[in-house]
Amino acid sequence: ALVHPLGGAADLVQRALQAPAGVAQQTGAILAGLGEFAKGGVLAPPGPFNRRVGPNRRFAMAQAPVQAFKDVKNGLGGSVNDVVLATVAGALYRFLRQRGEPTRGRELRAMVPVSVRTKDERGAAMGNRVSSIFVDLPVGPMGARRRHSLIRERTRHLKDSNQAVGAEFLMNIGTWAPPTIHAMAARLASRARLVNLVVSNVPGPQVPMYIGGARLLAQYPIMPIAEAMGLSAAVTSLAGTMAFGFTADWDTVPDVGRLAGATEESLRELQKAAGTRRAIARRRP
User: Fold this and answer.
1) What is the chain's alpha carbon radius of gyration, rounded to the nearest angstrom?
2) Are the CB atoms for 86 and 271 separated by under 8 Å?
3) Per the confidence metrics, is the pTM higher than 0.70?
4) Where do the domains of the chain lie?
5) Would you call 7 exposed, middle or buried from its count of C-beta atoms within 10 A (0-12, 13-18, 19+)?
6) pLDDT for 121-145, tens place per residue?
């Protein structure tokens, strides 16, 4: 999509007119957010998925009832998204262990898209405002309750910080920065090891949907992978079913199907920690 060179400036002017008293506050939030990046470390830890990717892809799926995630949330606290991240982190631990890779004390950094709309902007016709936070997922040997607790604490801290605002500023740099700077930033983002993978959770409609008279039972999201990031995980819900879609580089993650199976095992362990016993559907082929 083409971006008008004045689009970013016009958007800033519009926001300034709507809330002139908040301009200085927004600038402070951006600076604080950039500071969060520096404090957390610019580069992600070494990971098995950060390799040059080829032209071919693999795809694997898993699913479970939405209520299973809500049950864990009610038992352990936090949000449904915390449970999703804990499920993926536990699955990555099992996956790496099956591969014979070291896991003790290991973390993988996930880019997690989040909404950065303010309370005043919600409901307004201003389009989506989506940025990202970087969450270090604990993928070492530990109990499910401990893993969930670590993720819950980290996401709570990131939500209270301005990291997402700083990320939005960097992602929108192309709307106002000179082309040379934008090109340099784009090359850095695609080649530097900023994150190990992406984990995206997008809630869908929780009412029955139909296509040609047939009920849609689930929708499995397919998320692209980046130049030096061979794995992405996307999650979406539909009418009570939470569906996982894992997109992987053909050569980097040839065994991505194991990760899908490990996802269900990880959720069962979280259910046990939360004292729930809801059945989980088997993985789709």
Assistant:
1) 20
2) no
3) yes
4) 8-274
5) middle
6) 555 555 555 667 889 999 999 999 9
